[in-house]
Amino acid sequence: xxxxxxxxxAAGLFAALALTACGMKKQxxxxxACESLERGDxxxxxxxxxxxxxxxxxxxxxxxxxxxxxxxxxxxxxAIGFFEEALAGEDGKKFQKDVLSYKAMAExxxxxxxxxxxSCEKIKEFGADAECYYMIGKIGLQLDQYDAxxxxxxxxxxxxxxxxxxxxxxxxxxxxxxxxxxxxYLSRALELSPGSGQDYYQRGRIYYFMGDYPNAQTELLKAAxxxxxxxxxxxxxxxxxxxxxxxxxxxxxxxxQEEGNAARAYNGLALCDMAEGxxxxxxxxxxxxxxxxxxxxxxxxxxxxxxxxxxxxDFATAKSKITEYLxxxxxxxxxQREASxxxxx
Length: 345
Fold this sequence. Notes:
By secondary structure, this protein is mainly α. It has helices spanning 21-38, 42-54, 59-72, 76-89, 93-109, 113-124, 130-142, 146-159, 163-174, 179-189, 197-209, 213-225, 230-241, 245-259, 262-275, 279-292, 295-311, 315-328, 333-343. Helix 7 (130-142) packs parallel to helix 9 (163-174), helix 11 (197-209) runs parallel beside helix 13 (230-241) and helix 13 (230-241) packs parallel to helix 15. The longest helix has 18 residues, at 21-38. The chain is globular, with a radius of gyration of 22 Å.
């Protein structure tokens, strides 16, 4: 899902508190909550935002922050409730549009498509941007309104003809098993002229999704040369698709050394172990990854853990792991199919 980067330093969105001794003390709790949210410590963020609400400091902004944390933790109904409270407490246009965008995301993820569409229509009152049209397009796909979805995706591209937007549209179609429709947008993305490391990284991803691994490798190597750190992480996936686990392992090790995200590196190393049939090694890497994982890195590690136990033919443990996984991520269709398979083992 296309989740916007959270920026708390934006001028006008978070006004400074009065510089009194008491005000500075109150401000520190709020700032601490914002920092926790930005680094992915969502439970801590919720606790600190709630403390700030008790102190009556920037209450609508705290409710927005709690809502975002709940959204990230996939607690969608709770998130929607906090977004509604935030909207009731602050009528600034910029704030309203921002919160409505998050509210639409939460409604979409919870399956409340009509509510999500209503939120998007309210966003239009403040001026629809590419993100809004993209979300309406995604909702259209879920409602089987394919012509309307394409029309809104095209409007999104008119406002933001970027690699990221084309990729997001492709993935939206992929969620509906409409890869051919999505790949038409990938082809359009390749007409863009690359310049930055990020551009080459996105082009590498596009070629990967199109199944063109040699071109994906070429573009991602260019991205890495230009300093795009995640290119090495994705290069690992490309090498694994080409059954070159040694090169993939080298990429994940370089990523860990240069980018410092051990959880993602350990997950990649576990994939290399799985490709080589070293399932005990995979479990060891997954365990080390989980010890360092933030919320957004946890899901793939936990899913792969269940799969490794299946490969080891330890079906009882695999079944237990996938059941625990679905408690945390109940909407994951791949995990649902895995659970169904394991029920008969």
